[in-house]
Write a structure and sequence with these properties.
By secondary structure, the protein is mostly helical. About 55% of the residues lie in helices and about 0% in strands. The protein has one domain. α1 packs across α6, α4 packs across α5 and α5 packs antiparallel against α6. It comes from Stackebrandtia nassauensis (strain DSM 44728 / CIP 108903 / NRRL B-16338 / NBRC 102104 / LLR-40K-21).
């Protein structure tokens, strides 16, 4: 691997890019932010799947036949209430929501598929942000947008390479053939 400061360091897009120019402390801080954000999504997925009694009552789990989208989307009020109420409880919406939450959580925690996670995060968090409009405490900013921008920044900084499986993932034949999966 070449040194980033080296005049011979490669600057073209590849899975063999040189190390990040960020300090080791910054890389670890971003990795910890990645893992924390991943846990938020994985926990929400597990709670809705299993009814762990936090946000989802024990008898309200998806495995018990309940919809993970019905409670929230069914009670949305505001700018896009009609759109989100129509999605509430739909099988396709439940599956997309749960796949998004679980996939985003696993991807961020493991540090793999960070680009795909960022794109999925834009879709999932963008929809959750839209469903929250108008916001109660701020004209436009809430945690959905903060998480969305954070997911993009983590992918851009290759935060999965530190305290994660990002480097190993990048070396797989699949990712070498399809670099957008990095």
């Amino acid at each position: 691997m070449t040194d980033i400061a080296s005049p011979t360091a490669s600057t073209h897009e590849s899975n063999d890019k040189p190390e990040s120019p960020l300090s080791p402390f910054a890389r670890v801080a971003l990795a910890l932010a990645r893992i924390c954000l991943g846990w938020i999504f994985l926990w929400a997925f597990l709670d809705k799947l299993l009814g762990l009694g936090r946000g989802t009552p024990s008898d309200g789990s998806w495995l018990d036949g309940n919809s993970p989208t019905a409670g929230y989307l069914g009670s949305v009020e505001g700018t896009f209430a009609g759109l989100f109420s129509a999605m509430s409880g739909q099988v396709w919406a439940d599956w997309l929501f749960m796949l998004g939450m679980g996939g985003l959580g696993v991807s961020l925690i493991l540090g793999i598929g960070m680009r795909v996670a960022a794109i999925g995060g834009i879709a999932l968090l963008g929809m959750l942000w839209l469903s929250s409009l108008p916001l109660e405490n701020n004209p436009f900013m809430d945690e959905h947008l903060v998480y969305l921008v954070t997911a993009i920044a983590l992918a851009a900084a290759r935060a999965g390479d530190t305290l994660g499986l990002g480097k190993a993932w990048a070396r797989t034949p699949l990712v070498r053939a399809l670099p957008f999966l990095r």
